[in-house]
Write a structure and sequence with these properties.
Elements lengths: L9 E7 L5 H11 L5 E7 L4 E6 L4 H9 L4 E8 L10 H28 L3 H22 L5 H31 L7 H24 L5 H10 L1 H19 L3 H23 L3
Antiparallel strand pairs: 1-3, 1-4, 2-3
Helix pairs in contact: 1-4, 3-4, 3-6, 4-5, 4-8, 4-9, 5-9, 6-7, 6-8, 8-9
Length: about 270
Protein backbone atom coordinates (compact mmCIF):
# COMPACT_ATOMS: atom_id res chain seq x y z
CA UNK A 1 0.00 0.00 0.00
CA UNK A 2 1.48 3.34 -1.13
CA UNK A 3 2.03 6.24 1.20
CA UNK A 4 0.33 9.57 0.70
CA UNK A 5 2.95 11.29 2.82
CA UNK A 6 4.70 14.12 0.90
CA UNK A 7 8.44 14.02 0.43
CA UNK A 8 10.24 15.64 3.39
CA UNK A 9 11.54 19.15 2.83
CA UNK A 10 15.28 19.69 2.72
CA UNK A 11 17.35 22.74 3.55
CA UNK A 12 20.64 23.28 1.76
CA UNK A 13 22.97 26.20 2.35
CA UNK A 14 25.35 27.25 -0.41
CA UNK A 15 28.41 29.44 -0.15
CA UNK A 16 28.52 31.76 -3.19
CA UNK A 17 31.84 33.53 -2.85
CA UNK A 18 31.33 36.03 -5.68
CA UNK A 19 27.77 37.04 -4.78
CA UNK A 20 28.26 40.55 -3.45
CA UNK A 21 25.42 42.73 -4.73
CA UNK A 22 21.64 42.55 -5.23
CA UNK A 23 21.90 42.37 -9.02
CA UNK A 24 23.62 38.99 -8.66
CA UNK A 25 20.79 37.92 -6.35
CA UNK A 26 18.36 38.67 -9.18
CA UNK A 27 20.50 36.65 -11.60
CA UNK A 28 20.45 33.69 -9.22
CA UNK A 29 16.68 33.95 -8.79
CA UNK A 30 16.19 33.90 -12.56
CA UNK A 31 18.62 31.02 -12.97
CA UNK A 32 16.66 28.88 -10.48
CA UNK A 33 13.18 30.13 -11.38
CA UNK A 34 12.02 27.07 -13.32
CA UNK A 35 13.14 24.36 -10.88
CA UNK A 36 9.87 22.97 -9.43
CA UNK A 37 11.57 21.37 -6.43
CA UNK A 38 12.50 24.77 -4.95
CA UNK A 39 10.05 26.18 -2.40
CA UNK A 40 11.99 29.12 -0.96
CA UNK A 41 15.24 31.07 -1.33
CA UNK A 42 16.84 32.94 1.56
CA UNK A 43 19.73 35.23 0.59
CA UNK A 44 22.40 36.43 3.01
CA UNK A 45 24.45 38.60 0.67
CA UNK A 46 26.70 40.10 3.33
CA UNK A 47 27.94 36.59 4.22
CA UNK A 48 27.64 35.37 0.61
CA UNK A 49 25.26 32.54 1.50
CA UNK A 50 22.08 31.18 -0.06
CA UNK A 51 19.75 28.83 1.79
CA UNK A 52 17.33 26.85 -0.37
CA UNK A 53 14.25 24.95 0.82
CA UNK A 54 13.61 22.14 -1.65
CA UNK A 55 11.89 18.77 -1.95
CA UNK A 56 14.40 16.83 -4.07
CA UNK A 57 18.19 16.32 -4.02
CA UNK A 58 20.18 19.54 -4.22
CA UNK A 59 22.38 18.41 -7.13
CA UNK A 60 20.33 20.11 -9.90
CA UNK A 61 20.30 23.33 -7.87
CA UNK A 62 24.07 23.23 -7.42
CA UNK A 63 24.57 22.54 -11.14
CA UNK A 64 22.49 25.59 -12.05
CA UNK A 65 24.35 27.82 -9.63
CA UNK A 66 27.70 26.52 -10.86
CA UNK A 67 26.93 27.71 -14.42
CA UNK A 68 26.98 31.31 -13.17
CA UNK A 69 30.67 30.96 -12.22
CA UNK A 70 30.18 32.67 -8.86
CA UNK A 71 32.38 30.14 -7.00
CA UNK A 72 29.57 28.09 -5.45
CA UNK A 73 30.04 25.36 -2.86
CA UNK A 74 27.75 23.42 -0.53
CA UNK A 75 28.03 24.21 3.18
CA UNK A 76 25.44 21.77 4.55
CA UNK A 77 22.19 20.02 3.73
CA UNK A 78 19.60 18.61 6.13
CA UNK A 79 15.95 17.72 6.53
CA UNK A 80 13.54 20.39 7.69
CA UNK A 81 11.14 19.35 10.46
CA UNK A 82 8.59 22.04 9.78
CA UNK A 83 8.57 24.44 6.88
CA UNK A 84 6.33 27.50 7.02
CA UNK A 85 6.57 29.58 3.83
CA UNK A 86 7.20 33.28 4.30
CA UNK A 87 4.53 35.61 3.08
CA UNK A 88 5.73 37.65 0.13
CA UNK A 89 4.52 40.95 -1.18
CA UNK A 90 4.98 40.94 -4.97
CA UNK A 91 3.68 44.49 -5.34
CA UNK A 92 6.25 45.78 -2.85
CA UNK A 93 9.04 43.82 -4.55
CA UNK A 94 8.08 45.19 -7.97
CA UNK A 95 8.08 48.72 -6.55
CA UNK A 96 11.59 48.25 -5.19
CA UNK A 97 12.82 46.81 -8.48
CA UNK A 98 11.38 49.77 -10.39
CA UNK A 99 13.10 52.17 -8.01
CA UNK A 100 16.55 50.62 -8.35
CA UNK A 101 16.07 50.21 -12.10
CA UNK A 102 15.27 53.92 -12.42
CA UNK A 103 18.30 54.94 -10.33
CA UNK A 104 20.70 52.71 -12.28
CA UNK A 105 19.37 53.77 -15.68
CA UNK A 106 19.53 57.45 -14.73
CA UNK A 107 23.19 57.13 -13.78
CA UNK A 108 23.89 55.05 -16.89
CA UNK A 109 22.63 57.94 -19.04
CA UNK A 110 24.39 60.58 -16.91
CA UNK A 111 27.77 58.82 -16.88
CA UNK A 112 27.61 57.93 -20.57
CA UNK A 113 26.81 61.53 -21.55
CA UNK A 114 29.33 63.19 -19.25
CA UNK A 115 31.92 60.52 -20.07
CA UNK A 116 31.92 61.46 -23.76
CA UNK A 117 31.71 65.18 -22.98
CA UNK A 118 34.74 64.98 -20.65
CA UNK A 119 36.68 62.41 -22.75
CA UNK A 120 36.67 59.97 -19.81
CA UNK A 121 36.58 56.30 -20.75
CA UNK A 122 36.40 55.48 -17.05
CA UNK A 123 33.01 57.18 -16.82
CA UNK A 124 31.83 55.55 -20.05
CA UNK A 125 32.85 52.13 -18.75
CA UNK A 126 31.19 52.77 -15.39
CA UNK A 127 28.00 53.78 -17.22
CA UNK A 128 27.91 50.33 -18.83
CA UNK A 129 28.34 48.78 -15.39
CA UNK A 130 25.22 50.73 -14.36
CA UNK A 131 23.50 49.52 -17.53
CA UNK A 132 24.36 45.94 -16.58
CA UNK A 133 22.53 46.32 -13.28
CA UNK A 134 19.61 48.01 -15.07
CA UNK A 135 19.36 45.02 -17.41
CA UNK A 136 19.29 42.55 -14.53
CA UNK A 137 16.60 44.46 -12.64
CA UNK A 138 14.65 44.92 -15.86
CA UNK A 139 14.83 41.20 -16.56
CA UNK A 140 13.50 40.47 -13.09
CA UNK A 141 10.53 42.75 -13.75
CA UNK A 142 9.82 41.49 -17.27
CA UNK A 143 9.96 37.90 -16.11
CA UNK A 144 7.14 38.44 -13.60
CA UNK A 145 4.16 36.54 -14.88
CA UNK A 146 6.04 35.53 -18.00
CA UNK A 147 7.18 32.15 -19.25
CA UNK A 148 10.66 30.74 -18.80
CA UNK A 149 11.20 30.90 -22.57
CA UNK A 150 10.27 34.59 -22.63
CA UNK A 151 12.63 35.30 -19.76
CA UNK A 152 15.52 33.49 -21.44
CA UNK A 153 14.96 35.21 -24.79
CA UNK A 154 15.04 38.60 -23.09
CA UNK A 155 18.19 37.63 -21.20
CA UNK A 156 19.92 36.54 -24.40
CA UNK A 157 19.12 39.78 -26.24
CA UNK A 158 20.10 41.97 -23.28
CA UNK A 159 23.32 40.07 -22.66
CA UNK A 160 24.51 40.28 -26.25
CA UNK A 161 23.60 43.97 -26.38
CA UNK A 162 25.68 44.67 -23.28
CA UNK A 163 28.54 42.54 -24.63
CA UNK A 164 28.54 44.49 -27.90
CA UNK A 165 28.73 47.82 -26.07
CA UNK A 166 31.60 46.58 -23.90
CA UNK A 167 33.59 45.35 -26.91
CA UNK A 168 33.09 48.69 -28.67
CA UNK A 169 34.30 50.40 -25.49
CA UNK A 170 37.41 48.23 -25.29
CA UNK A 171 38.15 49.06 -28.91
CA UNK A 172 37.86 52.78 -28.19
CA UNK A 173 40.19 52.48 -25.18
CA UNK A 174 42.73 50.64 -27.34
CA UNK A 175 42.51 53.35 -30.00
CA UNK A 176 43.18 56.02 -27.39
CA UNK A 177 46.14 54.10 -25.99
CA UNK A 178 47.91 53.88 -29.34
CA UNK A 179 46.83 57.29 -30.64
CA UNK A 180 46.50 60.82 -29.41
CA UNK A 181 43.60 61.56 -27.09
CA UNK A 182 42.54 64.48 -25.00
CA UNK A 183 43.26 64.43 -21.27
CA UNK A 184 39.87 63.88 -19.59
CA UNK A 185 38.31 66.49 -17.31
CA UNK A 186 39.24 65.08 -13.92
CA UNK A 187 36.73 67.34 -12.12
CA UNK A 188 33.85 65.77 -14.06
CA UNK A 189 35.19 62.27 -13.43
CA UNK A 190 35.31 62.81 -9.69
CA UNK A 191 32.02 64.68 -9.27
CA UNK A 192 29.93 62.31 -11.42
CA UNK A 193 31.49 59.24 -9.80
CA UNK A 194 30.68 60.58 -6.34
CA UNK A 195 27.05 61.04 -7.44
CA UNK A 196 27.04 57.50 -8.86
CA UNK A 197 28.48 56.25 -5.58
CA UNK A 198 25.54 57.81 -3.76
CA UNK A 199 23.16 56.27 -6.31
CA UNK A 200 24.57 52.80 -5.77
CA UNK A 201 24.32 53.24 -2.02
CA UNK A 202 20.67 54.23 -2.40
CA UNK A 203 19.97 51.11 -4.49
CA UNK A 204 21.57 48.82 -1.95
CA UNK A 205 19.66 50.47 0.88
CA UNK A 206 16.30 50.18 -0.89
CA UNK A 207 16.86 46.53 -1.72
CA UNK A 208 18.07 45.51 1.70
CA UNK A 209 15.78 47.45 4.01
CA UNK A 210 12.88 45.16 3.15
CA UNK A 211 14.88 42.14 4.37
CA UNK A 212 16.78 43.51 7.31
CA UNK A 213 16.87 46.83 9.13
CA UNK A 214 20.06 45.98 10.97
CA UNK A 215 22.63 48.72 10.56
CA UNK A 216 25.54 46.29 10.23
CA UNK A 217 23.80 44.55 7.31
CA UNK A 218 23.37 47.83 5.49
CA UNK A 219 26.99 48.79 6.08
CA UNK A 220 28.28 45.39 5.02
CA UNK A 221 26.27 45.50 1.81
CA UNK A 222 27.41 49.04 1.11
CA UNK A 223 31.12 48.39 1.38
CA UNK A 224 31.29 44.95 -0.26
CA UNK A 225 29.57 45.99 -3.49
CA UNK A 226 31.61 45.76 -6.68
CA UNK A 227 29.72 48.75 -8.04
CA UNK A 228 30.93 50.95 -5.23
CA UNK A 229 34.50 49.73 -5.72
CA UNK A 230 34.23 50.68 -9.39
CA UNK A 231 32.96 54.16 -8.47
CA UNK A 232 35.89 54.62 -6.09
CA UNK A 233 38.26 53.41 -8.80
CA UNK A 234 37.08 56.11 -11.19
CA UNK A 235 37.41 58.75 -8.46
CA UNK A 236 40.99 57.64 -7.77
CA UNK A 237 41.73 57.62 -11.51
CA UNK A 238 40.44 61.19 -11.72
CA UNK A 239 42.87 62.16 -8.98
CA UNK A 240 45.79 60.56 -10.84
CA UNK A 241 44.75 62.31 -14.07
CA UNK A 242 45.12 65.60 -12.19
CA UNK A 243 48.45 64.65 -10.62
CA UNK A 244 50.06 63.17 -13.75
CA UNK A 245 48.34 65.36 -16.37
CA UNK A 246 47.96 62.16 -18.38
CA UNK A 247 45.01 60.21 -19.74
CA UNK A 248 46.59 56.85 -18.84
CA UNK A 249 44.93 56.50 -15.38
CA UNK A 250 41.53 57.02 -17.02
CA UNK A 251 42.26 54.49 -19.76
CA UNK A 252 43.53 51.91 -17.27
CA UNK A 253 40.39 52.10 -15.10
CA UNK A 254 38.35 52.04 -18.29
CA UNK A 255 39.92 48.76 -19.39
CA UNK A 256 39.38 47.19 -15.96
CA UNK A 257 35.71 48.18 -15.81
CA UNK A 258 35.04 47.15 -19.41
CA UNK A 259 36.34 43.67 -18.59
CA UNK A 260 34.02 43.57 -15.56
CA UNK A 261 31.12 44.53 -17.85
CA UNK A 262 32.09 41.80 -20.33
CA UNK A 263 32.04 39.22 -17.53
CA UNK A 264 28.62 40.47 -16.44
CA UNK A 265 27.33 40.21 -20.01
CA UNK A 266 28.47 36.58 -20.24
CA UNK A 267 26.65 35.83 -16.98
CA UNK A 268 23.43 37.31 -18.36
CA UNK A 269 23.80 35.34 -21.60
CA UNK A 270 24.17 32.15 -19.56
CA UNK A 271 20.71 32.74 -18.15
CA UNK A 272 19.32 32.13 -21.63
CA UNK A 273 20.77 28.62 -21.89
Amino acid sequence: MGSDQPDPMKQTTFKIAKMDCPSEEQMIRMCLADLPSIHALDFDISNRKLTVIHSEPYTPIFQRLDTLKLDTSVIDSSLVDAYIPNESNPASERKLLWQVLAINFFFFALELTTGFMSDSMGLVADSLDMLADSIVYGLALLAVGGTVIKKKNIAKAAGYFQLSLAIIGLGEVTRRFIGLAEIPAFQTMIIISILALIGNGACLYLLQKSKSKEAHMQASMLFTSNDIIVNLGVIVAGGFVYLTESNYPDLIIGIIVFFVVVQGAFKIVKLSK
